[in-house]
Input
Amino acid sequence: MSVVGAARVLRKDLELGPRSPIFLYALVFPILATLLIQLVFGGLFGSEPRLGIIDRGHSRITASMENMEGIRLTTLEDEAELRRRVRDNSLDAGLILQDGFDKMVRSGQRPELEFFVGGQSLASDRLILAVTTIDLIRQVEGTVPPVEVQLTTVGNTTTLPLSSRLIPMIVLLALIMAGVFLTAFSLVEEKEQGTLEAMLVTPTSVTDILVAKSAMGLILSILMAVVTLALNGALGSRPEALLASLFVGALMSVEIGLIYGTAAKDSQSLFTLVKTLNIVIVAPVIFYIFPDWPQWVAKIFPTYWFLDPIYQVALQGADFSAVWKDLAVAVAICAALVPVIYWLGRKMTAELGAA
Output
């Protein structure tokens, strides 16, 4: 292998890459997927009860609501605006506290409490807001609530919201787009345009070309994976463990891309390979979305061995000592793919020479 030859091919790919739709798709798709998933699933499944308050007398209830976690509070002045927001589902409920409300409660009076809910709000959000309001009123009154509510998690206490459990899927998409697809399509495009055969008649060897394609896929896949994790606020606190996991994941992705690119004769056969074999690549993400499924099944798929370390480090706060064994398995899989790539590269060169 010639370092100069590989560097020359890599520079050419980086200069011409932005002209390719696949190159741009690899850069844009993970970002768009992140925004879409966070907007849809982050909003639908990770929302907090939304309460609007008009406080005409500086009630203690409002101050308590402001300091309460898990409730999104909006203070307003106009009753018509409050009712409009509840009606339009911008708020789940509205509360109006009249002037002197706290004083009347403490003196034993029964002041009118205006509390109304939106017809489109979730029943669970209405219940949380209603119970919380009643509890705060009892505190103002100085009496002990008749019941004390305690939340007890049954089962797995580390279960994450759905929007967080989808992060492995987005990261894997980033690695696949830049590592697998970009590497494979770059090789196939060289075949179809005749530039690969032209390069092979120069001192540039097939190894130089494969190394250059690998370097481009490796750089971009790691970059896009980091960007994806940053957009999702999941970079974790162990950068060395995260970078090691991403590097191994990018390396395996690039090797799969080289296998696709060297085995496929044209774009049509490449698409056939992608549609046939990609289920093996993306299957492990299903087990993060559905954590109650038997997790041992995910270990059958090779991408699990780098995807789980990324998940553990980025979302569970694990360090390198907790994931190195899984990464060692992933590295062994990468090493096992090298002879396959070498054989397919020689086969590709022979076919181009025969043609």
In short: The first helix runs from residue 3 to 16. Strands lie at 50-55, 72-75, 93-97, 114-117.
